[in-house]
Amino acid sequence: xxxxxxxxxxxxxxxxxxxxxxxxxxxxxxxxxxxxxxxxxxxxxxxxxxxxxxxxxxxxxxxxxxxxxxxxxxxxxxxxxxxxxxxxxxxxxxxxxxxxxxxxxxxxxxxxxxxxxxxxxxxxxxxxxxxxxxxxxxxxxxxxxxxxxxxxxxxxxxxxxxxxxxxxxxxxxxxxxxxxxxxxxxxxxxxxxxxxxxxxxxxxxxxxxxxxxxxxxxxxxxxxxxxxxxxxxxxxxxxxxxxxxxxxxxxxxxxxxxxxxxxxxxxxxxxxxxxxxxxxxxxxxxxxxxxxxxxxxxxxxxxxxxx
Length: 307
Fold this sequence. Notes:
This protein is of the alpha/beta class and about 300 residues long. It is about 35% helix and about 20% strand. The protein has one domain (about 5-305): Aldolase class I (TIM Barrel).
């Protein structure tokens, strides 16, 4: 991999700015290792909680012409099993490992973070913004400033020396203000954005919603402009490094995120469209773009669209 793509993020150097997004291929050490071998600088685990969770009944993933609907429902094997997988991945790979956690209550976030840190991930990503479990957990914490501030403080204390990133949603009064709340309460980084919605599609043959959960989070190409604008707005008003996520499938889209100020760029639904080789191809295209313009570091162009 080209040295041109080396990225400094929270005092560590990653070989690429590309990150596997939470929710895709993030349950086992073997699948995450494959993604790292394909060129990702870091991988993010699937979001996990204190206890195993089955999630929603199938069907839970629905492709449509502009993206994907996802109603997986935070299915996961629980923190104890995920700690084992993270430790195994540490032994097998030198790539970055980010642990995504969630909780039913603010206190749960602290407990799962403390246990997750036993595996010494590079980062705890705090999922306060999943849009398809409201019927069980209530409205996402990410929509409320007080809740986000409280969870940020709790997780920061529980994480000890491990840095934390709060995963934000655009479904709040002001994502710029929410970013500031996270920064003021101890966050080391921000991830923006989560899936949006929820949304719905109906099978006109049977006249019922297609997803078993009826609604699901919207991801994929349809949300890229929303994610880009959120990243641009946050970076214009916050000094925290950003992991940008939302519909990225090409090197050009990754560059747009970086020019909006992102430090790293996360890819999830893009794997559905282009398999895990998407990391290889985007790295190659980024390198070619930089070489053609005699650009020797992504830092040169980071935030260029903010000026």
